[in-house]
Amino acid sequence: MKQITGGATAAKGFQAACTAAGIKYENRTDMAMLYSQVPCRVAGTFTTNLVKAAPVLWDRDIVKNSEYAQAVVVNAGIANACTGQEGLDYCQKTADQAAKVLGIPASAVCVASTGVIGKQLPIDRIMAGVEALAPKLADGVEAGNAAAKAIMTTDTHEKEVAVEFEVGGKTVTIGGMCKGSGMIHPNMCTMLAFVTTDLAISKELLQEALSANVKDTFNMISVDGDTSTNDTLLLMANGLAGNPEITEKGADYDAFCEALNFVNTTLAKMMAGDGEGATALFEVTVVNAETKEQAQVLAKSVICSSLTKAAIFGHDANWGRILCAMGYSGATFDPDKVDLYFESKGGKIKLIENGVALDYSEEEATKILSEPEVTAIADLKLGEAQGTAWGCDLSYDYVKINADYRS
Amino acid sequence: MKQITGGATAAKGFQAACTAAGIKYENRTDMAMLYSQVPCRVAGTFTTNLVKAAPVLWDRDIVKNSEYAQAVVVNAGIANACTGQEGLDYCQKTADQAAKVLGIPASAVCVASTGVIGKQLPIDRIMAGVEALAPKLADGVEAGNAAAKAIMTTDTHEKEVAVEFEVGGKTVTIGGMCKGSGMIHPNMCTMLAFVTTDLAISKELLQEALSANVKDTFNMISVDGDTSTNDTLLLMANGLAGNPEITEKGADYDAFCEALNFVNTTLAKMMAGDGEGATALFEVTVVNAETKEQAQVLAKSVICSSLTKAAIFGHDANWGRILCAMGYSGATFDPDKVDLYFESKGGKIKLIENGVALDYSEEEATKILSEPEVTAIADLKLGEAQGTAWGCDLSYDYVKINADYRS
């Protein structure tokens, strides 16, 4: 497996375009289209929020019932959530319009929206946007990058990754793009992420690989504990790599899962590190746990703790808050056995041993915590499993961004 | 039932004292003692955090195994949590010292600590503090108020309440004090709260009343979602009111429960409204639910949402975040039936009907949200049950307070 430049257009046959449709923002692109020159197998995972945005209902139906998908239309600025029948009608209209200009069935067009909840989409601008997008579709790194920029809301930078790997003597490419960066506490999926590959694989295995993988990647990040109404992760595979179709588990499937895991982990970490107001990516790894689930529950509880996040922002080695967050996680462990470390490019330091503080240097701890990527490692000394979660610090800017997001 | 001035010393026979022991803070009192002139029945609820501070273990043992309690020694500044055997030994030493100076058994002395996790108590100062406290014990409102001030950490004001009610022709008094104001997400109890009454009641009914009541009061508040290692709620009843002892449920027990509910609700709301950095008390009431549990789960999910809290800070009627938080709460309801209102001293406004936005005035909504106490009311239209939760907004000061709490 080899990382290459690019994102959602890295795999063969995938094209992208973007346009400034004037949905909410001024002077920036805010609509994107992703298109495959041939029909794709499509898998997806969606928000578990009981309040599901209209595009989530639309895409879920396509993933479940359509034979294939071939395009995705995305807008930033308005989420099309809590919009009733009108919101659902707008999904249909958007897909119909894309179907018309692309010459494909509406049942092959996924839609995705992100932004303010409760406002109706300016459907005339969306329709004009779709019409503007189709002729702009282009291959290559630049088109993918521009699309990754167009789907951002409070993100500070675009998020893309791509890798190549081998299946049956053929080079297969998988890449993707995603956006955050608030209301991020994915549960079975994440805000908006689109992963594309030219792999040939059965629909069943494509979905199985994705569903298994999100548990370790997108579901292990949190910015603010708020599971969005719009979380959508789509994985499209168009088969253009020319490999013999993967129809059963084995070495080829494993190679795909490894590449998928790299892509999803990278995108998820980018999203966590670019959380609203974040100054640092905060990684928590729990090692020597009895089970992976136990390790993941503990790690996720720590990255969700407001107090711990504020301490990370302050470069303060307030490890008591980490033990506290592990304690209320719901997972069992023995607090009197726990060792805890902080690690970053600034070094590694052991803070507690068997649940009690060591006589560590606060100065060194602060230096380690002043890096833009910080890891806490909790050693449970109970078994051999481990789990990792990713979050970010809690800063003044998180409050600023969200105190008056709508205006 | 009638509200009166005072707090933990309002009921007959209860005395309090405070002193500046120099545990962590300078130029302020930081230790308090609560004492009953006669032995008390004692009930308690404690943190469900797996990581339990030493004083929690000590008090839990007393509530379970001691025939009676007669004093509580409290310190602010250091939590005596994650302190191993040394921390447990310090509870014993503190209780032994109090027992000696008060002439009561150590098994009648509860201890409570709040502050930084992981530091050992300066036990010599604690011992000197206990010695200084005993001769200062005094009846009356002033002594109770001074004690309520001494147990504060990041609280901006002391928290007290007291009421009188009648049982068997006798006037019974119940009052209490508590402190917050970060790491507040009580689960079966709260940070530190001490409620005293001169009621005569069996130990079993005292505990039963308390355990039932915390579910509707202290367990329904949250400042930051972090369940502390030190949460302790003690309820002491010394029988000096002279009523016939309550030994079974009936009108007298109900009158007590009503008074207890008023005291605990008032203290809990004070704690929520004085949450770290808070500029507003944020109340959420869910009405016309199928069950009380459903209403409480939904209400609590909303007051815990960082995004909603930031919007309240910004006086922004971002109701989509409220519906979103209800949606990920885990409770079921029909989003398409929900009506939502904001209410405060500034007025009442209906924002959404049947899950979709009305054409309301943003200006009026902002006016209503600019009050120091704001209520959101969600009408599920499913049944007749209701539930309320209390939280606060998320401000810059929450981040400021917690980015470098230890220094």
UniProtKB/TrEMBL annotation, chains A, B:
Subunit structure: Heterotetramer of two alpha and two beta chains.
Name this protein carries in UniProt: Arginine biosynthesis bifunctional protein ArgJ
Gene Ontology biological process terms, A to Z: L-arginine biosynthetic process; ornithine biosynthetic process
Gene name of the record: argJ
Lineage: Bacteria, Bacillati, Bacillota, Clostridia, Eubacteriales
Keywords associated with the record: Acyltransferase, Amino-acid biosynthesis, Arginine biosynthesis, Autocatalytic cleavage, Cytoplasm, Multifunctional enzyme, Transferase
Record bears the keyword Acyltransferase: yes
Domain of life, per lineage: Bacteria
EC number: 2.3.1.35, 2.3.1.1
Keyword Metal-binding tagged: no
Matching Pfam families: ArgJ
Reaction(s) catalysed (UniProt annotation): L-glutamate + acetyl-CoA = N-acetyl-L-glutamate + CoA + H(+); N(2)-acetyl-L-ornithine + L-glutamate = N-acetyl-L-glutamate + L-ornithine
One Gene Ontology CC term in the entry: cytoplasm
GO molecular function list: L-glutamate N-acetyltransferase activity; L-glutamate N-acetyltransferase activity, acting on acetyl-L-ornithine as donor
Function: Catalyzes two activities which are involved in the cyclic version of arginine biosynthesis: the synthesis of N-acetylglutamate from glutamate and acetyl-CoA as the acetyl donor, and of ornithine by transacetylation between N(2)-acetylornithine and glutamate.
NCBIfam families registered for this protein in UniProt: ArgJ (TIGR00120), PRK05388.1 (NF003802)
Site for Involved in the stabilization of negative charge on the oxyanion by the formation of the oxyanion hole, residues: T114, G115
